[in-house]
Automatic annotation (TrEMBL):
InterPro entries: Peptidase_S1_PA, Peptidase_S1_PA_chymotrypsin, Peptidase_S1A, Trypsin_dom, TRYPSIN_HIS. It comes from the Eukaryota. It comes from Gopherus evgoodei (Goodes thornscrub tortoise). GO terms for cellular component: secretory granule. Keywords: Disulfide bond. Residues 12-146 form the Peptidase S1 domain. GO terms for molecular function: serine-type endopeptidase activity. GO terms for biological process: proteolysis. PANTHER family: KALLIKREIN-15, KALLIKREIN-RELATED. The keyword Cell division does not apply. This is Kallikrein related peptidase 11.
Amino acid sequence: MQRLVAAWGSLKLRGHPCHPHAQPWQAAIFERSKYNCGASLISSRWVLTAAHCLTGPIHVRLGDYNLYVREGTEQYKAVAKSIIHPGYNCTDHDNDIMLLKLQNPARLNRYVQPLGLASRCAEPGELCSVSGWGICVKQTTSDWGD
Ligand SMILES: [Ca+2]
């Protein structure tokens, strides 16, 4: 779980390591020095993540690829404000979404770019992709099913 991976699919996710900085909106949430969650930069000042990621004092790292190597592209941002969805339920994780306002805006460059938010919901069966610092298990095509 050190390099960024991407996955796509409907029910079964198929993943692969990302090319470095191919997901410039990908953000990492840290509690002190511990990686806590992935997130998305949605403007120079705002980050979208899950409400359950607010476990203590957190900060945001942008422009990262390998979490354990300083690549010179990272931006470290303090959080000025966290806004948890008012309907968030920590027991069943309903409405598990949170906005983080950065204390200082991100410097946008080729490594740090906001993700445009969708203007509509995905249709059933529509191909979507996710990215994050998760575990990427190599699969054979016979594992993929249909
Ligand atoms: Ca790094």
